[in-house]
Amino acid sequence: MAGYKFDGKYLTSSGRRVGKVQGDYIIDSSSRRVGKVQGDYILDKSGRRLGSFDGKYLKDKSGRRIIDRNGIEKDIDGNGGVTLAALWLLFVR
Description:
alpha+beta; ten-stranded mixed beta sheet
């Protein structure tokens, strides 16, 4: 069973809000921007590339595989492709 749930806007764990998706931005529970999704890329708050998601694998900035889609979906219950991968990278990892 997944420890996190994503409803399309909020990421929660045990009923507590951990993060939020607002447009392309990923926001933490303190209302600070912690990342951004831009196409297939996941960026940090300063715009530096943290990784990318090709639909099957989440890769770090140098292209090495970190986790596959099934692993992400085991940790986070929800839909979202690149957004789900960004939430996993920023909050679950």
